[in-house]
Amino acid sequence: MKNALPVLATIAALFAVPAMAQQGPAGVPGAPLIGASIAPPPVPTKDSKPPQPRKRAAADCTKARDVEQCKARQEARRQAREACKPLKGAERRQCLDEKLPKGK
Predict the structure, then answer these.
(1) d(Cα 32, Cα 15) in Å, to the nearest integer?
(2) In angstroms, how far is CA 89 from the centroid of its own chain?
(3) What are the beta bridge partners of residue 29?
(4) Element holding 87 (H helix, E strand)
(5) Do 67 and 79 touch, CB atoms closer than 8 A?
(6) Measuring CA to CA, which residue among 39, 100, 36, 47 is closest to residue 74?
(7) Distance CA 73, CA 79 (A)
(8) Is 28:38 a contact under the CB 8 Å cutoff?
(9) What is the pLDDT of residue 86?
(10) Which of helix, strand or coil describes residue 99?
(11) What's the pTM?
């Protein structure tokens, strides 16, 4: 019985050490309340506009191996986009797949 008390105290101390070494909210060890003073990031509002997709510039056909083929592909893509312009979503994708020539 006399030896059990020091053993239990040692075990309890060893279990408490990892809890003391845990990092606080700000990532600072041993500073559990420092994160309370740091404000969270602002919540985005619903009236903010989503980012617009970037428009890609046309490929420079002068650097292509086959200039005529490059220009023909560009023209075919332009015509397919014009033909499928009124459609949206999956219907547009299907229309473009049908209109564009299969590559490679």
Answers:
(1) 19
(2) 22
(3) 23
(4) none
(5) no
(6) 100
(7) 10
(8) no
(9) 92
(10) helix
(11) 0.44
Range 60-83 burial, b when 16+ CB lie within 10 A, else e: eeeeeeeeeebeebeeebeebeee
Buried/exposed 18-55: b ≥16 CB within 10 Å, e otherwise? eeeeeeeeeeeeeeeeeeeeeeeeeeeeeeeeeeeeee
Which amino acid is residue 4, in one-letter code? A
Total residue count of the chain as it appears in this document = 104
Along the 104 residues of the chain, how does pLDDT read in single tens digits?
A: 668 888 888 888 777 666 555 555 555 665 555 555 666 666 767 766 777 777 777 778 888 899 999 999 899 999 999 999 999 999 999 999 988 877 65
